[in-house]
Design brief:
Blueprint: E1 8-10, E2 27-29, H1 36-56, E3 64-67, H2 73-85, E4 88-93, H3 98-103, E5 111-113, H4 118-126, E6 134-137, H5 142-148, E7 156-159
Parallel strand pairs: 3-4, 3-6, 4-5, 6-7
Antiparallel strand pairs: 1-2
Helix pairs in contact: 1-2
Length: 172
Amino acid sequence: DLSPGDRVMGLVKEAFSPVAVSDRRLLRPIPAEWSFEQAAAAPTVFLTAHYGLSELADLQAGERVLIHAGAGGVGMAAIQLANHRGAEVFATASPSKWDALGEAGLDQDHIASSRDLEFKAKFLETTGGEGVDVVLNSLAGEFVDASLELLPRGGRFIEMGKADIREADQLD
């Protein structure tokens, strides 16, 4: 159903060349309104989100997940994948991007700022002190500490950033 010259996106091994070959099951047409740059980013953000939530965190239906930078590419993909799995999603973003989180289906009590530490108190209150089961993190410093405190029953902390890596033996 594809022809030479069609605009496609997907997974292509050794794609940095003038010609590449891929399994048809790994490709799809690029939506007409998308640029090549948008099409190139979509598989990457969804694979990153899938790897973090599915492979590393093993997110299950009914679990609560906090997705930092929820209005970014990986964050938006993670919200969609977490919703698909039946998880309860909490997210942070800068306040100017909260509308995007609302459009993704999050209630106001599941949205907080990624610019201050108030998300910890807000989400603990929303969950009746239980916190979340999984944190998909991209923040650093005191934001990591606040995020870890949202795992009072234990859980999985999935680090996507490189700025504040912590060893397991450093954590209570």
